[in-house]
Amino acid sequence: LLYGSDALGGVVQTAPADLFASEAPVRGTLAVTGATVTQQSEVEGHVGGVRGGVGAEVRGGALRAGLVRTPSGVIPNTALETQTLSSRLGTRLGERGQLIGEASAFRQDLGLFEAEDGSDLPATVSDRFAIALPRQSVAHDRAALRLGLPLGPDRLEVIAALQQNRRREFEDEGGAADDPALFLRLTTATADVRLQHRPLGRVFGTVGVSGLWQRNETLAEEALIPGGTTWNGAAYLAEQLALPTVTLDAGLRADVRSLDVEANDDLGVAAQTRAYTALTGAVGAAWQPRPGLSLA
Predict the structure, then answer these.
(1) Cβ contacts of residue 244 below 8 Å, gap of 6+?
(2) Residue 233 pLDDT grade (very low, low, confident, very high; cuts 50, 70, 90)
(3) CA–CA dist 235, 273 (Å, integer)
(4) CA 46, 57, 61, 164: dihedral to nearest 10 degrees?
């Protein structure tokens, strides 16, 4: 209910550790791992700290994997390289409030293996880490601002984010190596305002509104999907009733969406605008007959 109709199949939510969990002025970690099948090596680490109510953190990582080796030989053009970098800077607002800014970048290059009928896999190669054509390049950048503010016994959360994904594929049939045959660019802006209200007897929950703007662009000759722009607005309510051994959940969400599709002759798609509305409800229950055992 908090994430809309696109999340009906479930949500995988990742949340970073509390920026202010440790009062140490400087802290950090470093990890190095490896794998033999692809001669993969990976390093990741972070450094951060808290001083005077201000917290900061920087994380980074790099992965390099070579061609996949099988009992029949080495699979050509299966190497990949990945780099990640993220940072957070935040300040406490009173005893329970905080304002945090986030920025992250992801880069990946990988070869695209194309099987050829009747060809045998080579036993050895001169460079197991070479990424040849055809290959794919993915870049993803994100910036977000999070505000958590206590309003008496209630709590207000405001989250705004802007992100862009760029996916390019390069082929070896004509054109330069830096001229993509496929280039998809997806830009997304989101905003959420949530109020976690005070318990009303045994009932507690969240009421909120959210908005989304998304722009999809096809910027190369090959097209998989037409360009388009999506607008979405929603309001939702999710409540829980806590009983001694049973917790009951119920919620309701209303969405309004507009989709403007651009014409694409190659895909046979005409320019069009579509509007949608959706009303979503959910109920659930969890029974905990004893500590450590829960049935939902």
Answers:
(1) none
(2) very high
(3) 23
(4) 170
